[in-house]
Amino acid sequence: MTFFSPTQVFLNYRGEQLRHSFVSHLIAAFERNGINFFVDKYEQRGKDLKNLFLRIQESKIALAIFSTRYTESSWCLDELVKIKKLADKKKLHVIPIFYKVKVEDVRKQTGEFGDNFWTLAKVSSGDQIKKWKEALECISNKMGLSLGDKSDEADFIKEVVKAVQCVVATIGLEEEEENHFGKKKRKDCKCELPDLKKSRTKKL
């Protein structure tokens, strides 16, 4: 019987592009490894975005899975803004996943990723665009993992699972310290993830 960690992982991704491929394989790997997660399987089907925001708040870890079609969805971007707010308050650990998209394209909204972003921007408010750009730049600067076009997806999923398990362990230490000393101190995760600030990514 698989033991599931109480630490919830929220998956932020473009459902139409990844739901039945990468994300379904990732979810299966999470289940095999006892990782608790929340995934919105019915993106935008009559749901209130506030419900998803609540799910993000309930989570301790968020995976922002960037792909070429990610910026077609205002919902993905609005979730990312919420994720950034919680991460800024040290209430959420975020791992960016670059699925066959360049880090620079996410950070600067260029390439196909950027084309989709600016298409959406044409029907969006200036305030929305500003918040989306800030969130994309902030989250893409965090340590994460990158999958190239010719990479092995199965091996990449194993790396994602390892990264999540590392953060779960870090959170466990934080909670133990809080219970013991009555004071929570945010620890830096010692996971072997690359620093993306200079576009260095761990590619598989």
From TrEMBL:
TIR domain segment(s): 5-168
Keywords: NAD, Receptor
Pfam families, A to Z: TIR
Ranges in coiled-coil conformation: none
PROSITE patterns (UniProt xref): TIR
Biological process annotations from GO: signal transduction
Keyword NAD found: yes
Top-level taxon in the UniProt lineage: Eukaryota
InterPro entries for the chain: TIR_dom
Stated name of the protein: Toll/interleukin-1 receptor homology (TIR) domain superfamily
